[in-house]
Design goal:
By secondary structure, this protein is an alpha+beta fold. The chain contains 22 helices and 26 strands. Strand 25, helix 20 (about 610-615) and strand 26 (about 615-620) form a beta-alpha-beta unit. Helix 3 (about 85-100) runs antiparallel to helix 4 (about 105-130), helix 4 packs antiparallel against helix 5 (about 140-150) and helix 6 (about 155-185) runs parallel beside helix 11 (about 350-370).
Length: about 700
Amino acid sequence: MEKLIFELAGLDCPNCAQKINQRVSRLSNVSTSDIDFISKKLVVNAENSTVIGDIMRIVREIEPDVEVKPYERHNTSVHISRTKEIIEIAVSFVLFVISFFIEPEAAEIIISIAAFLVAGYGVIISAVRNLIKGEAFDETLLMTIASIGALCIGDVREGAAVMIFFRVGELFQEIAVERSRKSITSLIGLKSNTVNIKVGNEIKEIETEKVNVGDVMVVRVGERVPIDGVVVSGTTSFDISALTGESIPIEADKGSEILSGSVNLSSVVEIKATKKYIDSTITKILEMVESASERKADAEKFITKFARVYTPIVVAAAVLLVLIPSIITGFSQFTTWLYRGLLFLVISCPCALVISVPLSFFAGIGGASRKGILIKGAKNIESLSKLKSIAFDKTGTLTEGRFKVIDIISYKNDIDKDYILKIAAYAESMSTHPIALSIVEKYNKPIDSSALSEINETAGSGVKAKINGHEVLCGTKKLLEKYSISTDLKYDDYTCVYVALDGSCIGAVLLGDSIKETSGSAIEELRCKEITSILLTGDKKQIAEKTARELKIENVFSELLPADKVKKVEELIGNKDKRNVGFVGDGINDAPVIARADVGFAMGGLGSDVAIEAADVVLMNDDPMSIPVAVKISQKTMRIVKENIVFAIGIKLLVMILGAIGIADMWEAVFADVGVSAIAILNSLRAMILKK
């Protein structure tokens, strides 16, 4: 099976998009077809690429002005000129106004027909073309029948008005959707097409995709970092707001890791690439945003199915509305019932739903990305909005994920804490273990390596070494016991590194993983939303319970292996009071449980690529507070989706009823179509805005 992705350049008709999708999906060698009107993207899973010719033929038959071309990832949309449309609408509107002030009646009729033709000739041509090809129930056909019908029964000016305001509504609709496309896909600006590479003493400009791991990139002030890397020369500050939503710049010097998409603010730096372009952070972000529309929510699927049956049913109802009363009451009232049937045709177009529902999800995804939250599809927004409980990994998720010296304990009165720290730092100075690095960082003084000898590190236990001829042990209680050294020290709430000198324990260094500043606030926010927080960690019981107490998490499970975490999440999913269940993690070992949860969250800044790949939601700023923000965005988006569905269907049904009993006329009918569409689209765009 081959996945083919196309861009339908110039596509501006949602109904036409649905028709293209339906016909492509019916091709014999196509398994699935999905079209996203917002991004103008057609994704087809076919047996082979020979289907391309059939796809181009179908698109050409339905929309001759639409160009089918290979989808270029991260390509910006070409500006569409609407000058011709605006001129036609303006001319027809001027003629329409003149018709009110001209005499005799014959001249008024001629001017009104002229206004109708200027505004509607394109619509009529499109309607006839679609009708010949058997593409019935198109909005152009419905409007053509309705407006020509109004002309035929003597409402010449009203027929012209229907076509003019239909064109105005379509224009505003196209502009609104185009603007939303531009604002939502503003992430495209994060991509750099070329990069300056340092080769010897020369600087060469090459394509970003050709950069290899280890190449040194020269990033000037104002430029974006094109590929993830580490600073090898220079000191500067970076704006990372486009990635994380965090407005405060970060400082960077030699050794600092920098994510692609960051903007250099201060001075020229050299950055060594640590990944290829295809694996870089910004590439992953853009891929996630671009493929988000492929994961459709149930509400989107419902609207697609609804639109297929809704319009034909309403058209049938319009025909019956004309015929049945005319037969019962006599054909003397045929013109009255024909007018009311025409109203049904105007009202029946489901554009408001076909556009506004997927646009709402797209806007929600775009709004979340501005906050450094990448939601992989509309389906995940729907699931996010229904969360009842969230399970958290501890290390790197609720905590900083790195050890920090909390305290130093002296076991002998004549030995101070500074000396114990010095002994421990010297002993651990040759180790790369996170605990050792934390102790050396706390000491923060030069290490005289000439004082060290006979260094022997035992994995999982600690280090044995000689410092200026004195034998030092630095590690676990088991390490000391191995050398028959006893200690009464016991600190279960911390990671404890015991220090022994010449056969006697002199003290201990206590380390802990500090809780992130926003973890407590995030848990409290979730509690306010009636979402239960649960701690699942591989840490020992005492440390896990201490963290849970500080964060006020009542449900805590400790000393869990990755398989145990999966089992716990499955138990939660099986509990009807706890589902839907989310899980938040950052490491490779979290990937299985992230994938198993109803909604998997991954910490994208420090998290592993495996965890990010498995996740439904990626938090680029590694901030737990982003979780309630993501929930809030999803709930707002779903609320807007429901508002649009109720509003569009409600107004259409109301005007249909009013039209059927003779209260509503063409003006109300046009509003029920293009007016409702415009309002629903504007309402959809609110999903991009999140107030604090």
